[in-house]
Structure prediction request, 460 residues.
Amino acid sequence: MSGQHRHDHERREGHDHAHEHADEHGGHSTEDPAHPHNAPLSDVQLRVKALESLLTEKGLVDPAALDELIDTYETKVGPRNGARVVAKAWADPEFKRRLLADSTATLAELGYIGRQGEDILVIENTPKVHNLVVCTLCSCYPWPVLGLPPVWYKSAPYRSRAVLDPRGVLREVGVELPDDVEVRVWDSTAELRYMVLPERPPSTEGLTEEQLAGLVTRDAMIGVARVKAPGPSR
Amino acid sequence: MNGVHDLGGMHGFGLVIIEPDEPVFHAEWERRIFALRLAMSGWGRWNLDMARHAREQMPPAEYLTASYYERWLWGLERQLEHHGFLVRADLDRRVREGVDHEPPDAVDPLPGALRRDDVPRLLRNRRAARLDDPVPPQFKAGDVVVTRNMNPVGHTRIPRYVRGRRGVIDRDHGVFIFPDTHAAGLGRKPQHVYSVRFAARELWGPDGHPQDTVYVDLWDDYLDPA
Prediction:
């Protein structure tokens, strides 16, 4: 994208994008990104610190439990879970059949169940159907298989346009679809969560399940990317 | 409520930009507010629908300029005050006076506070959005429905862009809590949720692609037979 577009986006979106690590200080664009660690605490940093200290003093939260919650979503639960599921489905037709027929129960067998993923539906991309997942009203996302949602997924540009102009959104992120492919957009308005089973790329017959999982990206499981075949030039 | 959070179908917000190798959190305060909200939800004083509704009450101009976790902070502060956990004036004072960088003297968490060992269970436990109540479905797969034209001031999960539109029941997801009443503390009102399929042309007229469809999960109380 051009610098001009990037600038427009940031101006219109305020700091919802949080692309830059200057966001360390609350994301205000006036902050000097060259000094993210020495600047005084921003309003939001101070406020969250103050809130944690108050709640801790009242005995309402245990900081060790907070650390554990953070660690869980930074190191344990993330899109590697979903990638393992996709690779297994590609490698094992019987698993794939069960996964599509009863996603929640099949994912639960692998331990991928829980908060923001009590009921999950896995939807399959085919040469004729491309699926795209969004939450227009907030940020619903299948945590047990994909972890916490990325900023773009929660942002106004994606939430507003994924339902109205999915092909335009896909083109922007590099996925061009022929006219005869049906685009199915899934708006997560209830407590069902959606994960896309992407198409297996060609020339991957010889790969192990683990190698296959290494090809699968978070974005492919949301529906904004294809899984690329391995290769030095790809 | 017809709030600014109901973004589906709007123009003008710019390009979708995917950050390469995005970290899970972009700042320490994001980590802390994420965890604080989850930990405080463990007290069970409010439900998920109330939490969503709290964030939707953020004034529209603020909502659009706030980052995602700033909205969480905004909503959490108000819920904490509403449920008597915190007086926001105390928080304001603490912010003005500054926070000691040393952690407070060890305070034993109250019985009922989320502890480290409780975390896996909290995250694994399936919450009760899905219900076992024997409520008969009003529709079955293949039925043609029309979504209600409704504009409640309270919380609702029917986006504006599908109201008054014709769709087809794709599948019945089973019985779930009804968010409109649940967010208002008026009970669960168990009813079926369906995946309803809409042709893009039905939603967007000639600006929709003739091949495309949008699937939206909708409750019995949002639907009428066509």
